[in-house]
Amino acid sequence: MAKRKLKVLDSFAGAGGFSLGFELTGNYEVIGAIEYDQWAADTFQYNHKNAKVLVGDIQSYSDDDLLNAFPDKPDIILGGPPCQGYSICNRNAGDPKDPRNSLFTEFLRLGKVFNPKIMIMENVPNIMKAKTADKEFVIDIIKKELESLGYSTYVKTLSATDYGVPQIRKRVVVVASKTSLDNPYPKPTHSVGEQEPTLFNNNLKTCPTLWDAISDLPDIEAREGAEEMDYDKEALNDYQNYLRKGSDKVYNNKAMNHSKRMVERFASMSWGHSVSDVPDHLKPYKRNGNGEISTKVYDQNNRRLFPDKPCHTIAASFYANFVHPYKNRNFTPREGARVQSFPDWYVFQGKPTVVSHKLLAREGRTEEKHLCQYNQIGNAVPPLMAKAIAENLYNAIKTEDNILECTYTETI
How many independent structural domains does the chain possess? Predict the structure, then answer.
């Protein structure tokens, strides 16, 4: 019986974590991506060399442009369109929380243009609570709009740790399918910490911890590291072996250029402490305060993480969120990528960091207003979570010509 790969188009693609998960199963071919930011698009193209990447505002591409760019119509369309507070061109379109006044409409347009078997959308958990000005749940509108295109639509909040990602990260995943699905979501494969076996968790593996994820990376201090380095130790566990496979270098592993005072601040912190717990003389200065200590301290900033637990959520600003469990510095981009479950061969393009986008806009430096490596990594869907979604759907899809067979790929 013949077998073919399903074609995937990644919209609002970012650096490509979502589609990478599909590709890692061996059952899918990533044919293309649409991404607004040039540096994120560069990362996608570098790591998906056979994909066609459209760079720019999706609204600027006509239906014909899209059909010409992707003549091999996708079977699956992925995307994380911003659905809250991001109005489309018409800033007077109405309620900004209504997804019909957001870039979600462009995700729907892709469904109309390509009529794929499945569309998958991810978003932050708060979307489940969001309501429009008319008190209608945003998620209900999203379901209705997808159902109007002929899709059976399912909604569930997934936890990354359930799929072996060493990170406390929840995401709402909307699956829209042209055929009804009995099991649209993957069952958990991992659990956090050691648990007594029960009828329900007997086959679950233990989710890796933060230290399981990063302990084999080069031993560097603040201001050290490089965009390309040699490994200086062997892999210590299955998770590290899996992510190192196919790479003979460590990329994107440059530590932040912390000041001496910043290093001293971190040195005073124990596991679980944040900047609010350091001695007063090491707390941040007021901006333009001539050396005066600030009275505003943000507890979520610069928290030293526990090595033996999963990491907190890797956000776009994680360069300032977390302190290494043992080193007196913030995470490197590669450490964040490890926590997100990106393989080591996946190289992020663009600068590691950029100055404030507000400052760049104020000074007219628009050519520098891009998503840096940290932003790209923090914004991504964890590839291993995406891989679990992809494997489950491949086994669930029944095509009309009956040419698909189930395949099982390497798991960790």
Answer: 2
